[in-house]
Design a protein that fits this description.
Length: 157
């Protein structure tokens, strides 16, 4: 009796495959960015999701929940809880949209706007040196272009 053997493609070697060599540093950088940013945001009294919502609403007249979920990195399932906590803190108000009464319109309160003007520049000042130590302005521009191209490739899948 003869055993059928499957011919497998050779397993890519992470030490030589250029795509695999990028993967781990990319993920490690993402986690380092999150850890560093999250600890600073906690010192400001915010979670990453709360900061994302406040910064997205900052310097706007507000937006619908649908627009907010499209413009933030907060998942739709998490957004309601984040908005509930920000409402409880007095940072945002929610009201039926004037254009579409089925939609909820979200905007910063004066307290939320003051927080935006405090935490956004503080967080940028805190995070910017990490980028400046590693990249020139031209390299940062190139990195942005490459990351957007890579993101677009995943979105077309």
């Amino acid at each position: 009796m003869k055993l059928n053997t499957l011919r497998r493609k050779p397993t890519p070697d992470p030490s030589t495959d250029p795509f695999l060599k990028v993967l781990r540093p990319l993920v490690e950088t993402y986690f380092a960015f999150l850890d560093t940013g999250s600890s600073h945001l906690r010192s400001l009294g915010l979670t990453g999701s709360q900061f994302d919502v406040i910064v997205t609403l900052g310097d706007t007249t507000g937006m619908t929940c649908k627009e907010l979920s499209e413009k933030t990195l907060v998942t739709k399932g998490t957004l309601t809880g984040v908005l509930d906590r920000l409402t409880k803190k007095g940072m945002i108000v929610r009201a039926p949209s004037r254009e579409d009464r089925r939609s909820i319109f979200v905007r910063l309160t004066p307290k939320g706007d003051a927080l935006f003007h405090k935490v956004f520049p503080a967080h940028v000042r805190y995070m910017k040196p990490y980028f400046e130590r590693a990249l020139t302005a031209a390299e940062a521009t190139t990195l942005r272009t490459l990351l957007l191209r890579l993101k677009g490739s995943f979105e077309r899948a």
